From TrEMBL:
GO cellular component: clathrin vesicle coat; endosome; plasma membrane
Superkingdom to which the source organism belongs: Eukaryota
Name this protein carries in UniProt: ENTH domain-containing protein
Residues in ENTH domain copies: 15-143
InterPro entries from the UniProt entry: ENTH, ENTH_VHS
Gene3D superfamilies: 1.25.40.90
A biological process from GO: endocytosis
Organism: Favella ehrenbergii
One Gene Ontology MF term: phospholipid binding
Length: 143
């Protein structure tokens, strides 16, 4: 009996059903301040977790926190916007509604500015926030 339960759990893990700790690790990786992006397969794991209310609240709280990071953490802001974009298209419908409800927070990032060693690092954040606002303002783009 215990072996069959273990095998069933192993099969679930192999089929892409992640544990809470793995899910939270993916969420942290998705919004890290490192200079690389996360794979779409991992973003899809987050999108799948938006259908669970508890996980959904963890995801959105985390993303909103990263969107409001200090300008020197512009990569986190950009990656959080990128996650929101992906989740809007592939996650639970409530993701779209929540982001729409607080769209002003995204709109303010259209004027984001941060320079690092004389290089404008804010362009990606400005562009992504503009894209996300356009996406959420046009119902046809979400279909």
């Amino acid at each position: 009996m215990i072996n069959s339960l273990y095998n069933a759990a192993s099969n679930m893990k192999n089929k892409g059903i992640f544990s809470k700790s793995e899910f939270k690790a993916i969420l942290s990786e998705a919004t890290s301040n490192e200079n690389w992006n996360i794979s779409n397969s991992k973003l899809q794991v987050l999108a799948d977790h938006t259908y669970n209310w508890e996980d959904y609240t963890v995801i959105m709280k985390h993303l909103w926190g990263k969107v409001q990071s200090k300008p020197k953490e512009w990569r986190r802001i950009f990656k959080a916007l990128n996650c929101m974009d992906y989740l809007s298209k592939n996650g639970a419908p409530r993701v779209v509604q929540e982001i729409k409800d607080d769209l002003y927070k995204i709109r303010t990032l259209q004027d984001f500015s941060f320079s690092e060693n004389g290089v404008d690092r804010g362009q990606g954040v400005r562009d992504k926030s503009r894209e996300l606002c356009e996406l959420l303002s046009d119902p046809n783009m979400l279909q």
